[in-house]
Design brief:
- The chain is of the alpha+beta class.
- It has twelve helices and 16 strands.
- The protein is 34% helix and 27% strand.
- The strands form three sheets. The protein has a seven-stranded mixed beta sheet.
- A hairpin with a 2-residue loop joins strand 12 and strand 13.
- The radius of gyration is 20 Å and the shape is globular.
- The mean pLDDT is 93.
């Protein structure tokens, strides 16, 4: 039986055990992570946490809806045992009726369920690079353009290394963003970094210019066998010097030969997809669920 739980009713230890045990359990669905990106999140739970699905509920104009929280690429249904279409449909049917709009990602494992309703689930691209080979073997899979950009970075004296100041990376991101970023997200990122740094499950890699100023960098976070490329930033000089190619290559070089994968989080932007694929990453789509139960006028406006 599937139970709808308010935030205070969720047994966090049982929840996290399910996410840990599930082959589809990703860091985004860990209770501590959801607390940071979607405070007050609710949940659907089967029996004694055999299967779980987070509900990142938001409220706007008095309407409750589910949306993708920041820094949270994939959510959806996670279970200790393989998920079939009957279980998926049961969870979808259990979403409370007062949730009028669902516009949120599920996970890659959910994409593989036979019979998934393609009229409400739409594929989104993600890119994964498996790191379990020697560095030189991985590098053989780099695209010609990626090798050319790495050579240009080296010729420009670009040198990537570990850095320690998360706020410096956030400042670089906010200072070079094309669109305005929500200032609340700064504390979200800092808290994610602080939580994982204590466990040795986060890394910052950056490139500095001749004056010691950060011109490109990225935050990588780990859960189970997956490193995730969560945040990246580059200045105009960093872009000109192809510094981000050096950042990613440095990370790959340091972790090559480990039984892990690098999750680039994907993008619908062709330039970013090409950047990820250029390191030999392959596409692994995940489904995005869209259900519109808004009143007629609002439904039309939301199309």
């Amino acid at each position: 039986m599937i139970h709808y739980l308010h935030h205070i009713e969720i047994n966090r230890s049982r929840w996290d055990e399910c996410i840990q045990d599930s082959p589809d359990g990703l860091i985004y669905s860990c209770s501590w992570y959801l607390d940071l990106v979607s405070p007050g999140w609710e949940a659907l739970v089967e029996d004694d946490y055999a299967a779980v699905m987070p509900l990142p509920v938001s409220l706007k104009w008095g309407i409750r809806y589910l949306r993708r929280p920041p820094y949270c690429q994939q959510l959806g249904l996670s279970a200790r045992n393989p998920v079939n279409i009957n279980l998926m449909n049961a969870f979808l049917a259990a979403v409370p009726e007062n949730v009028r709009l669902v516009d949120m990602p599920f996970n890659e494992g959910n994409m593989k369920i036979p019979g998934l309703d393609q009229s409400v689930f739409h594929p989104k691209p993600n890119y994964l690079l498996f790191l379990d080979k020697p560095y030189l073997d991985i590098r053989k899979g780099y695209a010609t353009n990626t090798r050319r950009n790495l050579a240009k970075a080296e010729a420009n004296g670009v040198l990537a290394s570990q850095i320690q100041d998360m706020e410096e990376l956030i400042d670089l991101k906010w200072g070079n963003a094309i669109t305005r970023l929500n200032p609340k997200y700064r504390s979200v990122l800092l808290n994610i970094w602080d939580h994982l740094r204590e466990k040795g499950e986060s890394e910052l890699v950056g490139v500095r210019d001749s004056e010691g100023k950060l011109m490109a960098g990225a935050l990588f976070i780990r859960f189970k066998n997956r490193w995730t490329y969560l945040l990246s930033a580059s200045s105009s000089s960093g872009k000109a010097d192809r510094a981000m190619f050096a950042v990613v290559d440095h990370f790959i070089r340091n972790h090559a030969g480990e039984p892990l994968m690098l999750d680039f989080e994907g993008s619908v932007l062709l330039s970013l997809a090409r950047f990820f694929a250029g390191f030999g990453a392959s596409e692994h789509p995940y489904p995005h669920l869209h259900i519109n139960r808004l009143p007629a006028l609002l439904r039309w406006l939301k199309r």
